[in-house]
Amino acid sequence: MRDSTKSVRESIDPITGAITTPIYQTSAFLYPEGEKYRYSREVNPTVLELGKKIAELEGAEAGLAFSSGMGAISTTLLTLLHPGMRLLVHVDMFGRSLRFAKDYLSSWGVKVDVAPANDQGMLEMITKGYDVVMIESITNPLLRVIDLEKVGKACSEVGANLLVDSTFATPINQKPLEFGASLVIHSASKFIAGHNDVITGLIAGKGELVKAIDQMRRTLGTSLDPHPAYLTIRGMKTLKIRMDVINRNAQQIAEFLEAHPKVAKVYYPGLKSHESHSVAKRVLKGFGGVVSFEVRGGAQEALRVMKSTSVIIPAQSLGGVNSLISHPATMSHRTLSPEERKASGIGDSLLRLSVGIEDVEDLIEDLDKALSKI
């Protein structure tokens, strides 16, 4: 089956014949008939179906759902790492992921190294040997596309488990397991759920790893409630058609912004000018729904543009049907130090645009009007 079919299909309820997954809004299940489930923090039928669906979409042996993307990341890393083990991350990843690795895992005795914002530097570091390498396949917010072919091969050679945060790519534009990743991670609150109305995290990958992470999830309590699981399953049904529109809209907007006199630079893998364009064409099936750009000026001008849109909503999240715009330096990456932001290339004039499914001409007109304010 292809992705559109996998996204739509659900397991038919064996008792009632319901063609959509019911919301099992219960804390416990009758024993012994409910022995498989017992308690919803551990296993819930609605949440179980969501894990099954992400596994199918990613071509994985197993999948698992969490209360948030960070819940998925923290639970996974706490399962796979122990004091004395080695973790490699990269400087231009999501601020909270970097903070968890550098601030918490380091204090716990894990040796954490941070690779620079380029593939060559990371590949050279991988040869030193790591237990876990965690990357974002498309970085946030400058959209550097990491060469998964080379990174996957390098991790295999040193026996490292490769974890890939594929939130920006989605299973529609890339399947990291095909490049040798052990696990793929999603903040499913974004493109997968797709409607800016849930907080959810997902993983998919090797069965034995997912099983071990599942036991840690039950202990930590990073479990997903059945209602957002239901909403995420519903959102996944339109993932392929939403991403087709979003990919197309984002490309047109990136081209418009690149030609605009008030824009200094545009970051989008679909542009020939982007540093990762050649890699993106090789490892991605689509270039994604996030476009970042620097306006001419500084923080004041960027914030004025962000606050001047009327169709596009100023907000920190991304990946929904509604287009959102944010200022990374004061929003998504505010926890990074000035030095870390500089190393990641995040300047005060940078804006991140999450492109939705609105009419692209309306979005372009809205951006043009906002840019005219500076």
From TrEMBL:
It comes from the Archaea. One of its GO terms (molecular function) is cystathionine gamma-synthase activity. One of its GO terms (cellular component) is cytoplasm. Transmembrane segments: none annotated. It holds the Pfam family Cys_Met_Meta_PP. Coiled coil: none annotated. NCBIfam families: PRK06460.1. This is Cystathionine gamma-synthase. It comes from Metallosphaera sedula (strain ATCC 51363 / DSM 5348 / JCM 9185 / NBRC 15509 / TH2).
